[in-house]
Design brief:
The protein has helices spanning 17-24, 77-89, 109-122, 134-142, 155-176, 184-198, 205-214, 247-251, 286-294, 313-322, 362-366, 393-406; strands at residues 5-9, 30-33, 42-46, 49-53, 66-69, 98-101, 202-203, 219-222, 262-268, 271-273, 307-309, 311-312, 327-331, 341-350, 353-355, 369-376, 410-414, 422-424. It is an alpha/beta fold. Helix 3 (109-122) runs parallel beside helix 5 and helix 5 crosses helix 6 (184-198). The longest helix is centred in the middle third of the chain and has 22 residues, at 155-176. It binds guanosine-5'-diphosphate, 6-O-phosphoryl inosine monophosphate (IMO) and magnesium ion (MG).
């Protein structure tokens, strides 16, 4: 039987998951997104051509692969349709290969308005959300009042549900957040249009996956965001509103946990974060500037500059065991080329004590001082390496140290944005 693989981020997102999903999809029959929404920005570069995906799974550039959006994903139909159109303009047949769970919560324009109004109201305590309505849509799901994709197909039920929901959102916007209300009738009209456009793509994803798995075909589960943004295990409240960890691959797509044979943890060779929240290894010096400029660290969704810092092995080690990572992928090694000395955070100092595990509380985390291990850097470029033995010795030592600290086997190393700039030491699909 083929193995099934989860690919997810171990840091605060943007680790290069999209690139790795695209690469590994060569061995898969289907790719499934299981959480998050169009807050994600996953960049694929193939032969120099760049594609940025937000909601569409990163398997879409492999023509024979089916792409699923599982029940754990919050779907903004307008964003999805725009993304599909863009792919089709680029000559990619997307419509016939994308399948969306009828159980996915719908992101309405009023969720976007609420997200943005709440951020404004938080002032200097803002989370720095992507402003895409993600949090409010998950709130409505948990409160059992949300609209689901399947309801778009039943106009009378959908109409009354949307009117009721937008009325509730308008109450919050006007009375609590001092913001403008939305025209509920216009939202209903949008829903009708979305239902018509998306109806052939709305399916029972869990049942489709059951058939694929029964046939012994391999499935890749694509994570979005990163473990440190997980609603339960991340740096709360500076997190996203979904579980980004491996368990969500099962619950967010409708497969049992024994389906997941390999969990690939993707880490950048350093650390980045977009938005607010604690970041113990953040750099404000010229090295931080180097990482930001050489790594082109601008958000793929919002274009905001990403904060940059040294690799945080304390946070990443915890993330690896939270996900039972049994395959490690290190990306953006090339960005460290030419840095004279590289540092890895191996402990935190808090109130005089040395911690090897991060504190759960964000306020405590923001007071932690990183304790660093210093390693020699390397001058020679790592880009273009085809084997580990092609890398400078210091770069190899750095990778080995990361794998030792994270207690996971190093399977993939990425040294450039393009699909081809990758060394697969062991294929997680076991082929
Ligand atoms: P994702 O959200 O995890 O899919 O990552 P993003 O696409 O948001 O951000 C990763 C960025 O780094 C993208 O611009 C990629 O093209 C780029 N990238 C991925 N791997 C590498 C690498 O090994 N080296 C360099 N220089 N860039 C990379
Ligand atoms: P990918 O999949 C990096 C961050 C936002 C903010 C917090 C909450 O490309 O790695 P939200 O809009 O989700 O309510 O924002 O989460 N965030 C991401 N940061 N990469 C992402 O996705 C992110 N998706 C959300 O910046 O701090
Ligand atoms: Mg991204």
């Amino acid at each position: 039987m083929a193995g099934n693989v989860v690919v997810l981020g171990i840091q605060w997102g943007d680790e290069g998951k999209g690139k790795i999903v695209d690469l590994l999809t060569e061995s898969a029959h289907a790719v499934v997104r299981f959480q998050g929404g169009h807050n994600a920005g996953h960049t694929l570069v193939i032969g120099g051509t760049k594609t940025v995906l937000h909601l569409v799974p990163s398997g879409i550039l492999r023509p024979e692969v089916r792409c699923f959006v599982g029940n754990g994903v919050v779907v903004a139909p307008d964003a999805l349709l725009a993304e599909i159109n863009e792919l089709e303009l680029a000559g990619i047949d997307a419509r016939s290969r994308i399948f969306i769970s009828s159980a996915c919560p719908v992101i309405l324009p009023s969720h976007v308005a609420l997200d943005q109004a709440r951020e404004r109201a938080r002032g200097s305590n803002a989370i720095g959300t992507t402003g895409r309505g993600i949090g409010p849509a998950y709130e409505d799901k948990a409160a059992r009042r949300g609209l689901r994709m399947g309801e778009l197909l039943d106009l009378p039920t959908c109409t009354s549900h949307v009117l009721e929901l937008v009325e509730y959102h308008n109450f919050l916007l006007r009375k609590l957040l001092n913001s403008d209300a939305l025209d509920a009738a216009a939202v209903v009209a949008q829903c009708q249009m979305w239902g018509e456009a998306l109806s052939p793509m709305i399916v029972d994803v869990a049942s489709e996956l059951e058939s694929i798995l029964k046939a012994g075909e391999a499935v890749l589960f694509e994570g979005a965001q990163g473990t440190l943004l997980d609603i339960d295990h991340g740096t709360y409240p500076f997190v996203t509103s979904s579980n980004t960890t491996a368990g969500a691959a099962a619950s967010g797509s409708g497969v049992g946990p024994r389906t997941l044979s390999r969990v690939v943890g993707v880490v950048k060779a350093y650390t980045t974060r977009v938005g607010s929240g604690p970041f113990p290894t953040e750099l404000f010096d010229s090295v931080g500037g180097h990482l930001a400029s050489k790594g082109h660290e601008l958000g793929a969704t919002t274009g905001r500059p990403r904060r940059c810092g040294w690799f945080d092995a304390v946070a990443a080690r915890r993330a690896c065991w939270l996900n039972s990572v049994n395959s490690l992928c290190v990306t953006k090694l090339d960005v460290l080329d030419g840095v004279p000395q590289v540092q890895i955070c191996t402990g935190y100092r808090l109130d005089g004590a040395l911690l090897e595990t991060p504190p759960i509380d964000s306020r405590a985390l923001s007071r932690c001082e990183p304790v660093y291990e210093v390693m020699p850097g390397w001058e020679q470029p790592t880009a273009g390496a085809k084997r580990l033995s092609d890398l400078p010795t210091a770069a190899r030592c750095y990778l080995e140290r990361l794998a030792t600290l994270l207690e996971a086997p190093l399977d993939i190393v990425s040294t450039g944005p393009d699909r081809q700039d990758t060394m697969v030491l062991r294929n997680p699909f076991g082929q």
